[in-house]
Amino acid sequence: MTDIVSFGETMLRLSPPRGERLERTRELDVQAGGAESNVAVAAARLGANSVWLSKLPESPLGRRLVSELRSHGVRTGIAWDDADETRLGTYYLEHGGRPRGTNVIYDRADAAITTATPEELPKAAVRDAEVFYTSGITPALSETLAETTATLLQTARENGTTTAFDLNYRSKLWTPEEAKAGYEALFPHIDVLVAAERDAATCLGRTGDPETVARGLADDFDFETVVVTRSERGSLAVSDGQVYEQGVYAADTYDAIGTGDAFVGGFLAKRVDGGNVPESLAYGAATASLKRTIDGDLAVVTPEEVASVVGDDAGGISR
Amino acid sequence: MTDIVSFGETMLRLSPPRGERLERTRELDVQAGGAESNVAVAAARLGANSVWLSKLPESPLGRRLVSELRSHGVRTGIAWDDADETRLGTYYLEHGGRPRGTNVIYDRADAAITTATPEELPKAAVRDAEVFYTSGITPALSETLAETTATLLQTARENGTTTAFDLNYRSKLWTPEEAKAGYEALFPHIDVLVAAERDAATCLGRTGDPETVARGLADDFDFETVVVTRSERGSLAVSDGQVYEQGVYAADTYDAIGTGDAFVGGFLAKRVDGGNVPESLAYGAATASLKRTIDGDLAVVTPEEVASVVGDDAGGISR
Amino acid sequence: MTDIVSFGETMLRLSPPRGERLERTRELDVQAGGAESNVAVAAARLGANSVWLSKLPESPLGRRLVSELRSHGVRTGIAWDDADETRLGTYYLEHGGRPRGTNVIYDRADAAITTATPEELPKAAVRDAEVFYTSGITPALSETLAETTATLLQTARENGTTTAFDLNYRSKLWTPEEAKAGYEALFPHIDVLVAAERDAATCLGRTGDPETVARGLADDFDFETVVVTRSERGSLAVSDGQVYEQGVYAADTYDAIGTGDAFVGGFLAKRVDGGNVPESLAYGAATASLKRTIDGDLAVVTPEEVASVVGDDAGGISR
Amino acid sequence: MTDIVSFGETMLRLSPPRGERLERTRELDVQAGGAESNVAVAAARLGANSVWLSKLPESPLGRRLVSELRSHGVRTGIAWDDADETRLGTYYLEHGGRPRGTNVIYDRADAAITTATPEELPKAAVRDAEVFYTSGITPALSETLAETTATLLQTARENGTTTAFDLNYRSKLWTPEEAKAGYEALFPHIDVLVAAERDAATCLGRTGDPETVARGLADDFDFETVVVTRSERGSLAVSDGQVYEQGVYAADTYDAIGTGDAFVGGFLAKRVDGGNVPESLAYGAATASLKRTIDGDLAVVTPEEVASVVGDDAGGISR
Amino acid sequence: MTDIVSFGETMLRLSPPRGERLERTRELDVQAGGAESNVAVAAARLGANSVWLSKLPESPLGRRLVSELRSHGVRTGIAWDDADETRLGTYYLEHGGRPRGTNVIYDRADAAITTATPEELPKAAVRDAEVFYTSGITPALSETLAETTATLLQTARENGTTTAFDLNYRSKLWTPEEAKAGYEALFPHIDVLVAAERDAATCLGRTGDPETVARGLADDFDFETVVVTRSERGSLAVSDGQVYEQGVYAADTYDAIGTGDAFVGGFLAKRVDGGNVPESLAYGAATASLKRTIDGDLAVVTPEEVASVVGDDAGGISR
Amino acid sequence: MTDIVSFGETMLRLSPPRGERLERTRELDVQAGGAESNVAVAAARLGANSVWLSKLPESPLGRRLVSELRSHGVRTGIAWDDADETRLGTYYLEHGGRPRGTNVIYDRADAAITTATPEELPKAAVRDAEVFYTSGITPALSETLAETTATLLQTARENGTTTAFDLNYRSKLWTPEEAKAGYEALFPHIDVLVAAERDAATCLGRTGDPETVARGLADDFDFETVVVTRSERGSLAVSDGQVYEQGVYAADTYDAIGTGDAFVGGFLAKRVDGGNVPESLAYGAATASLKRTIDGDLAVVTPEEVASVVGDDAGGISR
User: Fold this and answer.
1) Mind telling me how many Å the CA of C293 is from chain F's nearest CA?
2) D295 — contact with chain A (CB < 8 Å)?
3) Looking at the partner chain, which of A68, A70, A72 has a beta carbon nearest the beta carbon of C73?
4) Cis ω on the peptide bond leading into residue A303 (within 30° of 0)?
5) What is the pLDDT of residues B205-214, one digit of tens each?
6) Closest of D200, D210, D274 to residue D237, by C-alpha
7) Which CATH number belongs to the domain containing residue D220 in this structure?
8) From CA C192, how far away is CA C135, in angstroms rounded?
9) Widest pairwise Cα distance in chain A
10) Is residue F237 part of a domain?
């Protein structure tokens, strides 16, 4: 049986060497990156049986994504599109450093996935899974995808699959008002909500201390669990009325991209493996801290490493 | 005064290392590539005062193209587009080797240039130039561009600027029938036609020996000069009724992309410098042969090197 | 159902850049390489449902091999060994050029696989497959492996799985006499024998024209099919008494390592897909010729590319 | 009209990878570096119409410098020298880290520029500019250059061009006493003096708090503006009797080389754009802080980035 | 005359780029690494006449090690082994970062050195040297080596050569109990003991403040000198009853591997050059701090740099 | 005892990647290159006890050359010069390909060696060697060096050391007339002359078939041996009146630089090892052919490889 199915867009991530500007570079590093596959990879690496659903052009570029995800043990359910008729989304990532922020340029318009319908996708995978995960990026990509996302979430719920959703607000895709409407159309189908503190404020107008935010959302939309993530300040979950807090593990950050997805992947992997909420929060936080030390979107970690961080005995040179 | 103005699309060219497949690569080499800027660069490097017109997103990617072309001495006249509203075309190039051909994947749909209108572009540049050059790729990119191309060619002709045009048929952009109609709409505004033997056959139905093809086109459309290029078998020009033949110079091919544009750039640079047709053909052929030894779309050559190939005394180690 | 199961050793392949000697290099390229996984990858890429069985240390190095093979769509059945107790085989590859041959240094003694027993491996995979493949390298690695190989071949035969075997003589592992004894112990369990002309001569004393060699082996050991491969001179098969010849497809060789395995992978993939012997020989030869253009042991090809070579219309630049 | 003209030496900057010592490296990164072109590039990138004057060998190496500067939008006025008779200066840069300093090895003796006379250079550029800039490195390179520098400064002043000068003391070129004499010979022709606190102390014997240093210099040599730069402790300007202080913007330093030139480039760009002294100091400080995050001598920045640092809202990931 | 002779294993050190995991890497950096050759290189670079003794396969890999060490001025006395019969140890190094430690995977079983006997090695080198150095890694590699180590130490002592030994406990080679027995069998032949505080505790059960540890060992085993190293907390020596303390010099750590060996190499180089114990401790600490800034196991430093750190005037950019 | 001592200039060789032009490159490969050290390295690698004499700046760059040569087993006798007063010669190498030749840019003026006097160099090394070698580059570098070269050759002859000299004409250093005078001043001190056919014609006016050239030189200047090298057409020696011819071994050329030096190094190594003239010619030709397959100036070969080429059984993949 499948533990976790995710659905969303994955792009080619193209980044120049450290210290080099995108505007000048002669060389780009190539990796796969996308919120939902990042979650699937983290979960798969931590032992969850994971599947990623998407729509891709049938080209070397589309195959490249699949083969990278597959190498981490993720199975894929792809609607292959005619390579001459469609394209693959890409994003350019320039690493920053104070006072210059990390810069992301998306080139994702009209990607194959924007036309994905439920009929093209292996819905059986959603039905048979323990958890179905997607994020707020997916419905923002096109009207078709907004509908497909809703249908998949509904399908999941109707078949007893737990649904998890990360707001993942992207200001380049829609306005806060559009996002709010989009989110709220999906909320009735969602069990577990992950919300960055900033997204909750910007899009949903939920401010205040994180417990208030989490409780408010849980109450208003009847979520089983709400996890509020606060970047360097840790996370907080309200689940079945209980509150759980989790700090961050200290990390030397090499690449911060994908940290949030690593958190979700770790959290869900532990949940489907039987962990309770606080255990899963710790597992997610540890996965996220390890991710920071690794180049790329993906949490290339092992269960032993995550356990070691949770158990607080990592560090040093082992030889 | 400007010698040569060209107008067209330039893309980011992304290519994996030799022997590595696009489907597997972790690294992409980045360069600028586009028929019309390739011609402008070759001509500028050979001494012509060159300008390239285009429309680009105002982003690090758009600026990257401009800075690369500018580094070769090409001046640019750019209509800058809002980076959030548009994109830059890219193309992926995988070097081949028998029995596997070199593979090109275009990702150019909806590039900024597809909406370029004559009003946005510095038409004065076209009016003041000795030669205006574009290729059959440009009108194939969008209906707007087909109109813009026609307007620019007309503007040039009306102001005494010689117009040059390379068929450059791209089967991924239009059918032979569409191309024929597109070409023939522009032919009345063209002085110098460059036609690959294959394109003349495929799109215009002109077959037979190259002289017949060239004469037929010159007669039917009243071109001042028609140059038929035949890849490894050299080229032939009919100009004011005279026929000139030119062989290829032997070359160790490192990268064949851009060879045709190098030929045109060398040919035009010599023409605007006062060379007659056979001298210009030789100059074009030499530029093309040098291009083959160099990685990338661009003919990174010097006038001395081209002269040396024409004078046949190159080769060996000079020290 | 599984089409092809292979069993054998895969190593880390470490190679310096072109033109650089192993003795001086500061940098090694890392890839997976091993006859049986090379075959599984080629077959999987060409559409066969493929599984690779082996034994590996449970370490980043062992996982690296699995993830690379998995990225090509091969499923794996691994007996994981304690990383502190065992090791992973490696091989160093220095590309040559006349008058200096390509040089291979094996460092494979005591690799985890040398202790693999049938009990540790998922024998069900062998039973359920259409074809079971291994090569003469496997029994040469240890006495334990010689026995395991025999057992797996027997298991396959008893369950109706076709068995295929490539002599793959390695002089650094055993003498021709030892190899002869080792091979002949396994021949009773083999349906399809692949034999390089040179190996047949060196180890089995079979010389003469390839048809004689193939017929002799088929008659003496009752093989269903014998394929004699002759490097640049093509291949010849005797199958159920019929003779089939196949030439090589011209190729620009970038990396010759793995060419033979690509041939076998292409041949078997076509066979399990219903191709007859001559079709499968052509498919194998085309896969092998494409492999030559690609860096690494693996045939990173697509069914379309192989079909295109067989159909003889490859080459040139498609754009 | 030209905003800023600078005159000076630019070298090939050759540096090994991070963590690698020059003494051992197999690979050198190549970039252009020189105080006056660094200033011209920073200013050009920030919108100033900039020209760089110099003398170079007519070789691929000389052309390389021009093309790199040109790619940033700097125009060049070069006296080309016979490549067989002269050379290009180079400098080797080894990045350090406590307790090992960054190490610079100059190989600049007898560079083409050391023989540059005013007659060879396009003096009209100096006459038509708003600002003429050079630094104390230039007169230190040769006696000829000391005279040429004086002549150019005089020419500028006589034509109403504001002159700006950075002490830029280099102990490997001359002694403090020689530098003092050299500087003071030029001071009568200078409007804006930039002086590192350390250089003012070492060469001019001016110590004490920066305001005292700046006022003293302004009073004694009748400068319109004196800017004292104090590295991590910010800068201070005395201009027409007024005092302005500017702190540094926090930065993660990737490469500190060129920080001072970035400051000057930003300062001058803002001045010619109509900024007052405090605005220009802030702009210079922001440009310098951004430079620190970028590999190479050059401040590869945009006006928007500099404005954002001044406005204090940079940092984070924008997506 | 030879100043320092060391004996031990050197491996190929293979490491992926920063931020990349061993499990995913396509590229490995190659360098030589081994405690005793690290010491020999540091000492040779600092002016000591140094020789390294070992046993290696006569292959490109074995020659690679020799040529790298030789390039630093170390002479080598090698027992060459048949390359087909033996192997070279390798180790994989993955750089870490909180919360993930640096990870080392040894692949050193059955390396050529494990069979080295005193007869194969140039014992004259040991006899003629001022200092003979080896570490606790060597006797842990095989029983043969434990005996060879003892013989060489004895030979040294009998010929008036000072013997120095670093515990260098490696938990992957033996248990603390085995190590204790191994160490104590050698202690009678040792003059100078270097012991990491942690090794002294783990293997010898010596805990408490470092002076107590050092005095206890010196008294119990009659060492002339005992140096206790405490990582970031400095070192302490007891020599002929006197106590000396040494802090660490602040360093930006790029690569911590080999720091301890650099300390020993600096310490011994100063000792054989006539330095007293506190001078030698300072020299060792400075060498170690410089090592931290350099990629690889080796302290690529100069005597001037070490002297500069000791004299506390390093840092900044010199130009 | 020393077998071969050579004296001459070695430079840093800086070359861009294949297919990339020097004018555009961001990256340079760094190696040591110089005729006399190339010969010393080839000879040392083939078993000769070799020493290289030169004068170098005492800097990381000077040390880099020494460490690279030392890594091949060459001992060095260096007159170290003050790094602030002198420089190291460099040369830029751009690989070509028809119709563009390989391009070399020397930047060697005022290198440290140009001031080398016999007193600074370890003349004992010359006296004690079996062969002293230098080339026509050395006396061309400065008048001081012309004198030093003469003195060293004389010293060698007076002490019974055989002297060998390669004309190695460099048109960028002197005219044919100057070279002729320079050569003829040294000829009285030379036993073995190596002359490229082209150099003999250009500088000495010796044309005609190679035997005539060799005999003419041997007769006129009383050389013991004259070797005329003819590039792809092999070589011919006249020694003590006998004539010997040697063809070239077929090679796939990766880098032709240093081929002539490899020939001399192989020839001399065999001579000092007791080989007769034809054996030594074959050895030289084989060394040269292997050199062609290797990147860089140096013949990174082994005696076994050279013997294998001479014995004609190289090629293929050994595994």
Assistant:
1) 17
2) yes
3) A70
4) no
5) 999 999 999 9
6) D210
7) 3.40.1190.20
8) 11
9) 55
10) yes
Whether residue C318 is contained in a domain is answered as: no
3-state secondary structure of B172: coil
* Segments of chain A assigned E as strands: 4-7, 11-15, 27-33, 50-57, 75-81, 90-94, 102-107, 131-135, 162-166, 192-196, 225-229, 235-239, 242-246, 317-318
Return d(Cα E267, Cα E273) in angstroms, integer. 10
Instruction: Compute the Cα dihedral for F215, F221, F222, F223 and give only its sign.
Output: negative
Nearest CA to D22 out of D89, D90, D95, D88 is that of: D95
Q: Classify the C-alpha dihedral E169-E174-E179-E185 as positive or negative.
A: negative
Q: Is residue F317 part of a domain?
A: no
For residue B316, pLDDT over 70 is answered with no
Q: Give how many domains chain B has, as a whole number.
A: 1
Domain that holds residue E168: 2-311
Nearest C-alpha neighbor of A12 from the set A78, A66, A58: A66
Mean pLDDT rounded to a whole number for chain E: 96
Strand ranges of the sheet holding F242-246, from the earlier edge strand across to the other edge = F75-81, F50-57, F4-7, F131-135, F162-166, F192-196, F225-229, F235-239, F242-246
B143 touches chain F (CB under 8 A): no
Q: How far is the C-alpha of D23 from the C-alpha of C16, rounded, in Å? A: 22
Inter-chain CB proximity E317 and D102 less than 8 Å: yes
Q: Is the dihedral of CA D44, D49, D54, D59 positive or negative?
A: positive
Interatomic CA distance for residues A261 and A137, integer angstroms? 12
Give the integer Cα–Cα distance in Å for E146 and D70: 66
Calpha distance C277→C110 (Å, rounded): 38
CA distance F110 to chain D (A): 9
Distance CA E87, CA A98 (A): 48
Return d(Cα B298, Cα B265) in angstroms, integer: 10
Calculate the dihedral angle through the C-alpha atoms of B133, B135, B139, B144, rounding to the nearest 10 degrees.
-30
| Mean pLDDT, residues D113-142 | 96
CA F38 vs CA F43, F162, F169, F261: distances in Å: 9, 19, 16, 6
How far is Cα A89 from Cα A112, in angstroms, rounded to an integer?
8
- Crossing angle of helices F35-45 and F259-272, in 10° steps, is 50
Instruction: Provide the b/e sequence for C68-106 (b: ≥16 CB within 10 Å).
Output: bbbbbbbbbbbbbbebeebbbbbbbbbbbbbbbbbbbbb
Q: Which of A41, A50, A71, A302 to mutate to test the interface with C (most CBs of C within 10 A)?
A: A71
* Number of residues that this document lists for chain C: 319
Domain membership of residue A79 (yes or no) is yes
Per-residue tokens: F189: 């001190």
| E60 with C94: Cβ contact below 8 A | yes
* Rounded Cα distance, D89 and E289, in Å: 33
Size of interface D-F (CB pairs under 8 A): 75
Q: Which two tokens stand for residue B34?
A: 């586009």
In 3D space, the residue among A226, A219, A214, A143 whose CA is nearest the CA of residue A185 turns out to be: A143
Count of alpha carbons within 13 angstroms of residue F82, beta-carbon side = 3
Q: Could you tell me the pLDDT band of residue C319, with boundaries at 50, 70 and 90?
A: low
Low-confidence residues of chain F: pLDDT under 50: 313-318
* Single pTM value for the model: 0.96
Contact A108, A86 (CB under 8 A): no
pLDDT at A314 over 60: no
> Position of tokens 């039973």?
C127
On whether the CB atoms of residues F212 and F243 are closer than 8 A, the answer is no
pLDDT tens-place string over residues F245-299? 999 999 999 999 999 999 999 999 999 999 999 999 999 999 999 999 999 999 9
Residue E319: what pLDDT? 52
Looking at residue E209, the DSSP 8-state letter turns out to be S
Note the helical H segments in chain C. 35-45, 60-71, 123-128, 137-141, 143-158, 176-186, 197-204, 210-221, 259-272, 277-291, 303-310
For residue D238, count CB atoms less than 10 angstroms from its CB and return exposed for 0-12, middle for 13-18, buried for 19 or more: buried
Please compute the mean of the pLDDT values over residues C112-120 and round it to a whole number: 97
